[in-house]
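Work package 3, deliverable 3.1, input record:
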Amino acid sequence: MTKTIAIARANTDILGIAAALFLGAALLFVAGFAQAAGAHDVAHDQRHAIGFPCH
Amino acid sequence: MTGKILSSGLFAGLAGGLFAALLQFTFIVPLIAEGELYEDGTRVHFTEIGAQSDAGAPSLVSIMTEDPTRHLGTLAFDFVSFTAFAMFLVAGFAIAEKRGHRIDAGRGLLWGIAGFVAVHLAPAFSLPPELPGMIAAPLQDRQLWWVGTVLATAAALGLFAYGRSALLAGLGIVLIAAPHIVGAPHYDQYFGQTPPELSSLFVARSLGVGAMAWSVLGLMAGALWARR
């Protein structure tokens, strides 16, 4: 019983970590990398400020 | 656990993004606008008779008068960027905690400083932050190099901090050095049109603001993580 709970908990931990990594990568792509004109213009100053390769 | 990861990441990211935006507005955005004066030819520094031009950055208000939503975009995307950074931090916290390491505010600060090294300092070491108008190698090449450098440096710092053998530390040294030995994409000519004084101040400010913002981000993330 304890073992089952421990395994279930480990699985949700991995799910949470994966969700955070996925969300982080998706947000980073939008903020720093997407080249659609709209995204580029609005994100322009913070991209330069943070040092993302821009233009 | 999932709720703890996502909520501490979100709130730390909002705090770090707000702090970063305030610092950028004060110290960096005027320099970007000044760089654009050289990009669009309003000011010219290098001429046939020599190099000289007026100094002075446009004010935040005058930038806003020209483009009313520009600062809003900067603030919004600082939230997005720093929430992204925070998500990577808290995912790292979760992995470290599963391996028996305790995370608190002080530890979070160290993680934040490591994040600054991985995301700002290491890429800038070979590919310095660019003012608008700088001619640089093809964008995709630089983006690829940037991502590779950030990942390799983060992995190296993780090995230095948590790897418990000389072999892993050696692997860390290889990982942290490799992007700079391979070299960042650069052209074999200089094209700079902005005064060197402005470019170097911009780079120093970009790194300084990055260091401060990541310190707050790490501290907040660690404090929020320990509280819940």
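Residues 2-50 of chain A form one domain.
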